[in-house]
Amino acid sequence: MAAEASIVKQYEDADFSKRVDIMLDNFASFTTQIEISFDAIKYRIKEDRAFARRQNKGDLGVRVQSSGTGSPTEREALENIEIEEALQKKDFSGAIFKNVDDVDAIKREIYVMEIMKLDYQMLEKHLRLLKKKDQKLLRDFLEDGKELEDIAEEENLTYEAIRSRIRRARSQVKCTMVCFLNENGRRDF
């Protein structure tokens, strides 16, 4: 089974319409998925740096106690903070990225994630443009993951009526968001 492309890569490769679909289809977990992707970058950087350190020491994979001073836990904590700060500030000039593979790809991913965050914030605003009732129904479905049958029962409406209202509300949000992105968004990363 082929591995599914990360949400960041999917977003990067998508046109505006597909980007909105990605946000809507992953609405409840979208920001968490971005955070996980960000953490994956930190993990890759740490692993690349650790690999380089092992290579420089001639590590053959055997653990040997070193006579170096300082706590490994403290060093790791400081390294985590340095990496986090460099990524947050988008400062790729320091030694943090020495011995890190494909820094340009990391820069690109971080840029895409920033656009994803901005687009999601804008999608939230476009969702608030809906009538209150339609907004509630769509949020129940997208955010809370409620089944259409359950929403229909709560609202005392038919399944078809709820499905139609949610489909119409989603379509309206998608249409206004795609128009916004066409006028203001980046077509390429």
User: N-to-C SSE series?
Assistant: HHHHHHHH
Percent of residues in β-strands: under 5%
Helix tally equals: 8
**Which whole number gives the mean pLDDT?**
87
Straight-line distance between termini: 29 Å
Rg calc: 22 Å
Characterize the structure shown.
The protein has 189 residues and is mainly alpha-helical. Helix content is 70%, strand content 0%. The chain is built from 8 helices and no strands. The protein has helices at 7-13, 16-25, 30-57, 72-89, 103-127, 132-142, 148-155, 159-184. α2 packs across α8 (159-184), α3 (30-57) packs antiparallel against α5 and α5 (103-127) crosses α8 (159-184). The model has no long low-confidence stretch (mean pLDDT 87).
Structure characteristics:
189 residues; mainly alpha
Summary of the model, kept short:
It contains 8 helices and no strands. It is mainly alpha-helical.
Task: Summarize the SSE layout with pairings.
Elements: H1 7-13, H2 16-25, H3 30-57, H4 72-89, H5 103-127, H6 132-142, H7 148-155, H8 159-184
Helix pairs in contact: 1-5, 2-8, 3-5, 5-8, 6-8, 7-8
